[in-house]
Amino acid sequence: VGVFYRPLEKIAAVIETYPRGIAGFRRYQELLATDPEIADTPDAIEAPALKGDIRFENVSFAYSEERPILRGIDLQIAAGETVAFVGPSGAGKTTLLALLPRFYEPTSGCITIDGLPLDRMRLNSLRRQIGLVSQDVFLFGGTLRENIAYGRLGATEAEIREAAAQAQLTSMIEGLPEGLDTIVGERGVMLSGGQKQRVAIARAFLKNPPILILDEATSALDSQTEREIQSALDALAVGRTTLVIAHRLGTIRKADRIVVMNEGRIAEIGSHAELLAREGIYTALAG
Ligand code: ATP
């Protein structure tokens, strides 16, 4: 954990919601340290406040030369839209979304937000505006308050409590002997999967980014927890461009659009009803 703290100011904006998700955050950290391509270019600008109009233009990507993962992705997402990404395991959903915070660079093609190519913007100023919530949340050994505040260093007590409430954490906090001062993580109170997810959601509320990437949990939660998390996520998505790697039919049906990925390409795009009518891959997946 010590490694995280030294460059804390610089990377807090990135680590925020989860350092291990989205195609291996650990690996990403190694890249950050070693890969000059992911550094700022000398003429990179401070990103303006983004609205979140996202375009992928003929984007291809490979982790290694011999094996292309994404092939010629063209996709336009309007600011404020919620788009669900579905498709078989290995289709490239996670990889595609990992390109947005520039965890990896496309092999070819271009990604823009509000018309600005990603690499025109300073990395920190880009990542500050992208929230990540996944099932693979990183909690460090510290108080619950510190873990939530990780979403935005310098948040006030009132802001932290507000974010906790928005993430439906209040009743859990009240049930802990020392409330927000309770030590969590390996040396403290172990949180359940659902509780950890809510900490991630609270961090994202604090961060308040215009763009949100959600990696929906595949792990089973009890139905009450499930509902609470779903309603917290719904509230979180309001007013933001939301890209969700979706596993639940409820999420998929509510999305403005569904992108069906298969073998590194976009196979189908449309609403739930449109895709069902097409009787293609989506229909097969939904069945
Ligand atoms: P799932 O639904 O199972 O998460 P996915 O559609 O999100 O799948 P990706 O995780 O993007 O798919 O993976 C696409 C392909 O890229 C897979 O074949 C995977 O093995 C490979 N891959 C993913 N991450 C890496 C990595 N860091 N290095 C090399 N290959 C990787």
UniProtKB/TrEMBL annotation:
Reply yes or no: does the keyword Membrane apply: yes
Tell me the domain of life: Bacteria
MF GO annotations? ATP binding
> Which UniProt keywords are given for this protein, alphabetically ordered?
ATP-binding, Membrane, Nucleotide-binding, Transmembrane, Transmembrane helix
For this entry, the protein name equals ABC transporter ATP-binding protein
Q: What is the lineage of its organism?
A: Bacteria, Pseudomonadati, Pseudomonadota, Alphaproteobacteria, Rhodobacterales
Membrane topology of the entry: Multi-pass membrane protein
- Pinpoint the ABC transporter domain residues: 54-286
The answer on whether this UniProt entry bears the keyword Membrane reads yes
Where are the coiled-coil regions?
A: none
**Subcellular location as annotated:** Cell membrane
